Amino acid sequence: MFGGGAATGAQAYSLFAVHGWTALWMPAAAIAIVAVVGWLCVDYANRIGAHHYREVIESLYRSRLVGTIYEIGCIYGTVLGLAVCFASLGSLTVSFGLNYWLGIFVMAAACTLGCLFGTATVRVISTVLGLVIGVIIVLIFRLDLGVAGGAAQGIIAGREVFTSYGKAWYGCFYFAASNCGTMLALLPVFDRVKNRKRLTGTIALGFVLNVAMFCMVIYAVLNSMPGVNGAQVPYLYVIQSLGVPGLANIYSVILAAAVVTTGITLLYTYTVRFRKFVKVKSDRLSAFIILTAFELVGAAISKFGLITLVSKGLSLTVWINIVVLIIGVPIMYFIRTREESRKHD
């Protein structure tokens, strides 16, 4: 889940830090929700042999209508997620005096090439780039701890709330709901995680790493308050304020990696989901057509701006995911599990 919106600091700022000291612990609650729902969805998918998100939802709910409603929200959320990735890289290129659409082109080309080479490539790219992202975030966090006069310690010690606890919890569930959808959409990437022990270990490790990285990014953003307010790429503002020569350039490479990783994993799901509907002889050609369609729409929507997309754009998907995934999946998983156990009694 640590992709474009996270690595730019846009989620850290607009969903957590903007509310105050609650930003330090609410990400753990949000990511725990994602981890539990993600585990339930992947485990159920393994049990029924599902290959994409709609099969899981329709089987859990025994309803094509719920599957259709969820898929509408999922496609909308994926296009918005892709737009966030495009906006992240576009905003980054602009911050270095380059054309916005250059970043879009680089992003689209990298995503297309990554998706066309299949699941193994997607998994390797995600793993390697995720490790690199983690290293640079730890480095920046250590540098930020030494900043004199930072705002974070005062905000935390005084338990300052800039908005309200209600809005802070809304930000928490907004983040959790949007990322629960992403977890289910990434089902093809979990194709080798077929036993519960390995699945539990994978998700537990992901939980720990994501909480650690989010908290480090959020602390850095809080430390730059109030100057970071209004920054299109909040984490870049943090890095530039540290004044370390070359660090912003290194971060730019890492951000590009995070954005491309997220874009590839989001898009690959839909090459699997919709390939059978594109009637051409070559699987790669059908994948290319699907990728191009999603990329064109995502690129156009990206012009609404990174912060706007992260904080407001995903509202439709969020409410669908709260009902269908966060509330519904644990209930339906329990019901289906009980049904199976009764059959074996």
Q: What can you see in these coordinates?
A:
The structure is a single chain. The chain has 345 residues and is an all-alpha fold. 78% of the residues lie in helices and 0% in strands. The chain contains 15 helices and no strands. The chain has helices at 4-7, 10-16, 26-48, 53-61, 64-95, 100-116, 119-145, 152-157, 165-185, 196-223, 234-242, 247-274, 283-301, 306-313, 315-344. The longest helix has 32 residues, at 64-95.
Record the SSE blueprint.
Elements: H1 4-7, H2 10-16, H3 26-48, H4 53-61, H5 64-95, H6 100-116, H7 119-145, H8 152-157, H9 165-185, H10 196-223, H11 234-242, H12 247-274, H13 283-301, H14 306-313, H15 315-344
Short description:
The chain is about 80% helix and about 0% strand. The protein contains 15 helices and no strands. It is globular and about 65 Å long.
